[in-house]
Write the structure tokens for this entry.
Amino acid sequence: MSEEGKIEKLKEQYIDEILGIVPLSQAVFIVLMSLISDRLLSGASPNFLSAIANIDLKSSLGLDAGRFWEVGLLSIVISFALALLNILILRRALDFSLRQAGLGPVLISWQSAAASRVSTLSEIQKNAIQNSFKNEIDLRLRKYKAKRISTELISSIASVSFYSTLFLVYCSYKNADSLIWSFTETLFLCGTILLSLLLHRSSVRYAIAKVLPLKIYLCVITGELVFFETITS
């Protein structure tokens, strides 16, 4: 197998677990987007900031008089479709960042170093290290997941602001009205986008620096390796 093929196999083995921790909880986005889009489409609010004003848990999701339960089906369907788009974008962004980090040679180097060190250990030492590594990886994966959830929450808010802008443009065009947009809304949108990018970058760097090295050593210790020489397809 070519060197490029080996690198791709290593990436599949070690990076897929990182990619699998993309949070799919878009409930906050769906609720906010449904409420805001409903108000914008109905003309109840002239802009994003006025639509999001006074939205709180009780007034939005209360069983007696929650606004969400009065939202039109169209707004909910649109919000759900946009949530699926958000999930796809987050997954692609994470995949792109990890695969553009130049990990191929690094993964091979880490695996070679791990194999060299593990070869000198006894079975008792391997078992002890294996248990220790598993516990530490679990802790680091939980921290990584928290970072990804934070990234998704902020990016969801940024998405709400961006999609609301598109709704405003549509409503203004449909009703032949002038578009009401303020500097505050522009600042809010740019700020949330920048913050989500910074959080995304932080989570990727943490995964590369703290999760992948231990994952590689654990795979070497447990024998969960890809035997390239026996792979024919």
Summary: DSSP finds eight helices and no strands in the chain. The CA atoms of residues 59 and 140 lie 37 Å apart. The radius of gyration is 23 Å. Residues 226-233 have pLDDT under 50 and may be disordered.
